[in-house]
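the two lines:
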Amino acid sequence: MSVIELDGVVKRYTNGDEEIAALDDVDFTVNRGEMVAIVGPSGSGKSTLLNVIGLLDTPTEGTVTLDGRDVTDLGTDGLTEHRRESIGFVFQAYHLLPIFTAVENVQVPSMWDSTVDRKDRAEDLLRRVGLGDRLTHKPNQLSGGQKQRVAIARALVNEPHIILADEPTGNLDQDTGATILDELTRIKNEENVAIAAVTHDTQLTDYADRTVELVDGVRR
Amino acid sequence: MDASRRLPSLVMAWRNLWRNRLRTILAALGIVIGVIAIAGLGITGSALRYGTAQQFSDITNQATVMPGEDAEQRYLTESQVQSIRGVASNATVIPVKQGRVTISSHTGESYASVDQVTKPRELYSAHKGTIPQPFRTGVLINNETAAYLNVTIGDLIIVGDQSYKVRAIISDGGIGYRDSRVVVSPPALSKQGYSSVMIIAEDGDAAQYLANATKDHFNTEGEVVRTSSYGGLNQRVGSLFSTLNLVLLGIGSISLVVAGVSILNVMLMSTIERRSEIGVLRAVGVRRKDVLRMILAEATLLGVIGGAVGAVLSAGIGALLYDTLYSDPLLVFRWASARYLIVGFCFGAFASVLSGIYPAWKAANKRPVEAIRS
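prediction for all of em together
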C-alpha cells in the first residue's frame, strides 16, 4: 500500500522574470516497507521533491496523497499536523537541539502534545539504535554517527508511516554511513515504514529497493 | 522532563536563554536599568513629596483673619473677635494686637513694631528660654532685637512706658511660625482693636473651612474681613509633585523604550541564529503557535527576571534615599513609593513581551523549507 503518492506534480519558482520548473510533471509513490533512493545532479529538483513529499512545500500543480488522503490544499497548520503524525525526518546535518539531551531530542516531535508521554518510547528507540548508554548525553557529547542515530530515533518517535532522509550519510565516513544505512534498513523492516532518501551516495542506492533519478526536474 | 511535559515552551525558552548567558544577562540588564529609571525616579519624586508634605503640615493648619477693604475700622473689634470665636469654636483663636512703640534698655532705644498676644506658644518657637503659657506678663524678643538692646533672658526692657522681663528669645519666623521682633503680654498696647486673628485648626482642610466660614459670616455686604490660609497649599503641592512625577516617569520610560528596542534586537538576532533549529521544530510537527509561545516565553522571562531584579534594586536605592533624607529606610514601602516598584516591574515586563512579539511572529511563520536548508 502506498504511503505517499505524487501525481503530476509541478513546482515552479519565479526568479525575476524567469520562471524555473524545479519539478516538471513528476509522479512518485513509495510503499510501506520500501526504501526508495532519489538521486540526480545538483539542481535536478530532488530536494524540492523531498520537500513536497515531506509536506514542507506545496506543489504548483498536481496532487499529493498521504495515506490515501489528498493533502495538496491543506493549510500550514493542517500540513504541520500531518507531518507530526505521519512523517519522520532525518537530515544531513542531524539538526538536534543542543539544549536537549538525546532522550529529550527524541521526544521533541511529541513534546507539545500533552496527551501523550513518549519518554519510555524515546528511551526504547535509543536503546534499539544502540545508544542505551547515551540517553542523557547532549549532542555535543555525541559523535556524528551517534547524532544521526538520535535523529533516526526522533524520526520514529510518533510512529510515522514514512521517513524522509536528506543525505543521511552525507556528513559521515563510509563505515559509519554503512551502520546508519543498516539501521534504517532494520527499522524499515521492523516498523514497516516507507523510506525516501535523497542522496549522492552510491552506497545508499545499494541499500535501496528502488532508485528514482531526476534530471532537470523530470524523472528518468 | 516533568516540567517540560507541562510547559515545554517555557522550559525550552529557559534553556535557550541559559545557552547564551552573557547575551541574556546583557539584554535583561537593559530592562533592569529601565525599571530602575522608572521606579527610582518615581520613588525619588514621592520621597520629595513626602518630605514637603511633612514640612508644610505645620502651616497649613493656620488661617489668618484681617480687616477687609469694606471694613468700617482698620482693625478687628472685640465683638468681631467674639464672633470669630463663635465660628471657630473647635479651633484655637488667637487675636493679635499690633502697634509701634518705643522699646529701650540701658544701652539702646528703638521705635519698633510690637505684637501683643495671649497664647504665644501657638505662634512662636523659643530659640532660648521657654515661652510662658498663659502669657500674663513679660516680653519675648527675637535675636536681632536682643542684640540691639544688648539684653538676655531675665533682663528688663521698657516697652512703651512699662518695663517687662525678657522671658524667651524667639526664632525668626520659619515654617509655621509668625515672624515678630517684640511680643509683649497684654495689656501693654493701649490701641483699640486687633490687627489680625489667628485661627489654628486641626489640619489644612479644617483651617480652609474655618477661613471660608468666617468670610461667609462677616462678608454679607462687601469685604468686611479677608482671610489668608495655606489650606490649598497641600493640594497645590500635591498636584505640583504629581506633575513632577509624571515628568520623571516619562524620562524613566525612555530608557525602557531603549531596553525594549535592545530586546527586540537580541530576540531577532537569536531567532535568526536559530532559524535552522526552529525550522526543524516546524518540520517535525511543532505548531506555529508553539514556536510563537516559545519565543514569547523567552522575551517574557527576560522581562520578568529583569523587572524583578530592577524592582529589588530600586527598593534598595529607595531605602537608601529615605534613610538619607528621613533616617527611615522602611518608608520606601509606603504605598505611595512602593507602587512605583510595581509600576516599574510591570512596564519592564510589558516592554519585553512587546518586543518579543515581532521576532516570535517572524520565527513562527518562517517556512521550514527555507529555515533548514543547510
